[in-house]
Amino acid sequence: MNHAAQWVPLSQEHHGGLMWQRFTAYHFAQTTTQVALADAELRHVAANVPIALTETAEGWQAVALLGLEDGQNLLVDDQGRWRAAYVPAALRSHPFGLHSNYPGRLCIDQHSPYVVERLDAEPFFNQHGELARFPAQVLAFLQQREQGCQRLSKRINALAKAALLTPWQPHGYQGSTPLYQIDERAWQALSAKQVGLFWQLGAVPLVYALLQSQQQLGRLQLYQQRKATAEPSVPPSDPLAQWQEALSSEAEYDWPSAT
Predict the structure, then answer these.
(1) Contacting residues for 14 by C-beta, under 8 A, at least 6 apart
(2) Which of 91, 176, 251, 256 has its CA 20 to 30 A from that of 147?
C-alpha cells in the first residue's frame, strides 16, 4: 500500500465526482522518513521522536526524524499502526495537504487510496460547489500550521546566523538528507544577554526541544532492530479532533469547531 504522494489542487472541475474517506491506518506514511514540524507541536514531538534541522531551497525547517534511511518510517508497523504516542500534524491531514506550487489552495494526494469514487464516503464539495465543511476546516488548520512552520524557519535561521548549528550524524543514520543540530557547547558559551535575545525571538523552546529529543534516538534504533516487536498505538478515528486535542493548549491556534 506504499505510494509516492502526488499533490494536486482540489477543484470542483477535476474532483467534483470524487469523495474521500478518513484513513484507518498509516500505510500511506510508510516511506516518509522526515516530516516538517510547526512550532506548536515541538514539545509533543520531542517526547516521542528525534527532531533534526534541515536546510531546503525554501529555507530551514525542523523535522521529525521517523527513519534512519531514505524511504523508511520506523514509526509505522506492517499493519499500518503508529508506534508512538504522538503523530506529527502533517500526517494527520491525509489525504489533504498544502503545496508551495499552489499557495492558498487545499490539495489532495491523488494517489491516496482514501480518494475514492464511492457514494458512501465524504464529499469534497457542497451543493454550491464550495469546499464542504470538514475540508474547509482542514484548510484553515493547515494554513495555521504552515504559519507555525514559517515561524520556526525564522528562528532556525537566526540560530544558523549566530553559528549555533552543527552537522549531525546520528548513530545508524544512512539517509541522504544532511541533518543539523544545536551546537551544545556553543549554546552553553552564550552570555545571559545573548540567551535573552533568543528568548525574545522565541528560539529557546526550540533549542530545548532539539536537545531533549535526542534522547528518543534510541527508540528508532530499537525499532530498526526489532521492527515487529514494538507495541503500536491505535490510529485516530477522527484526525481533526486529534489535532485539536494535541495542540489546543497553544495560543497561536484558534480552532474551528470539529462538529
Answers:
(1) 8
(2) 176
